[in-house]
Sequence to fold (328 residues):
Amino acid sequence: MRLPPGLILVSLFAAARMSAAETSPATPARFVPVLPTNTVPNGPPIPTAPAQESAHPAEVPLWPNGAPGSETRRGEPENISWRQEADIVFPILFNIHNPSVVPFLPNPAKATGAAIIIAPGGGHMFLTIDREGYDLAKWLADRGVAAFVLKYRLARDAAGNSPYKTTVEPVADGLRAVRLLRSRAAEWNLNPARIGILGFSAGGVPALGAATKFDAGHPDAVDPVERVSSRPDFHAMIYAEVPRADWEAPKDTPPAFIVVAFDDPGKPVGLANLFLKYKAANIPTEMHIYNSGGHGFGVRTDRPELPVSTWPLRLLDWMGDRGLLKTP
Fold:
């Protein structure tokens, strides 16, 4: 599915936003005061109103009785606050102990069967829940792609005293999310062979973990979700974190889509090396390196003049090129 390159992205995103009336009720996160670490000198004003998540469907827990090792904390409410950066203020979510996905399902009349799990970034301290989560999910759903925002456990949770490790719980949550979608494909009108995962920044850990540490399922598992494959059919790395240590990509690593800005201070080299690793392993990969955009550009409708703001269109181009958007 090729889209005209001249489309103005700001209008597309505006058209995709869902009103509160179009979403199911969800448990609101608990607002906490802005942490000093989430402010910058001379940044834009922080709103006086408490931060809140934008309207969204109710989340679906990855494990009905709580994640393994986190069962006793599954009842803790998530926290939400403001984060201030040099040119933007946005809500962040943390204190996540009951990992879940928030489903944004397309109109059945335009559904392609494709689905993407979206893992927001935030340095493993918080989730940039709107512009690296709900905003993209709404946009994709409006174009026939089911989207599921992943609330994964945070190894450096801003609430403090996190018991989690970067390479353990976030990866487990990414793998479980793939299994969950595949196990409920009929219910959510998904093609079980078109389930992908996308990671922004630190969200690259659950995304790449799912793409490289999957298994075919455990036929003897008591939990029926664990019986299905955790292998995503594709994955996307958006200015995403990749392992620093030497590692090998499995030969059946799913196809990849990579986006980064040249002026991102930390991610271009790692993602370029990932591309080369995938090329050597003959894993189909498309990579876009934009001239400018910095780190954390996510879905920003306030900068439509920047070419990097059109990256979601390139994602749809790539998915169409791979046959993932053919309607049933």
Summary: Residues 234 and 254 are 5 Å apart (CA to CA). Residues 1-24 have pLDDT under 50 and may be disordered. The helical segments are 9-16, 130-141, 169-183, 185-188, 204-212, 268-280, 311-321. The chain is about 20% helix and 15% strand.
